[in-house]
Write a structure and sequence with these properties.
The chain is mostly helical. It is built from 5 helices and no strands. The longest helix is centred in the middle third of the chain and has 27 residues. It is globular and about 45 Å long. The two termini are 18 Å apart.
Length: 117
């Protein structure tokens, strides 16, 4: 999971993607087509994470008695919230964290609760 976060963060935090996100967020409340497209994108991301978690469970890397959809929602929401605060809102209190630190803290925080006992 940390590797996945390390790969995703540079893409999401790139100037091109963050600029596009700023436009989408500002327009989504006024444009129902864009709103549907944004929902669809988030659903695809969460679906990917849910499938990833199921595969990890089948490998024995995480427990199988969890709500995979809810954990995927939690994980995606945490990461998106961090990106929004850090790059779209410009929260300087988050600027000094490296991708490695973000990946490790988010992964440890989430996975410690769903690791096999």
């Amino acid at each position: 999971m940390p590797q996945l976060i390390r790969r995703v963060l540079p893409i999401v935090e790139s100037e091109q993607v963050s600029g596009m996100m700023r436009v989408i967020i500002s327009e989504v409340s006024r444009n129902s087509d864009l709103s549907e497209a944004a929902k669809s994108l988030v659903q695809r991301i969460v679906g990917f994470l849910e499938r990833y978690l199921r595969i990890q469970s089948e490998k024995g890397a995480i427990r199988d008695d969890i709500d995979f959809a809810l954990v995927a929602q939690f994980f995606a929401g945490s990461l998106m919230g961090f990106v929004v605060r850090r790059f779209l809102v410009g929260d300087l209190s988050l600027a000094h964290y490296s991708h490695e630190e973000i990946a490790l803290v988010l992964t440890r925080t989430m996975l410690d609760g769903i690791n096999p006992h």
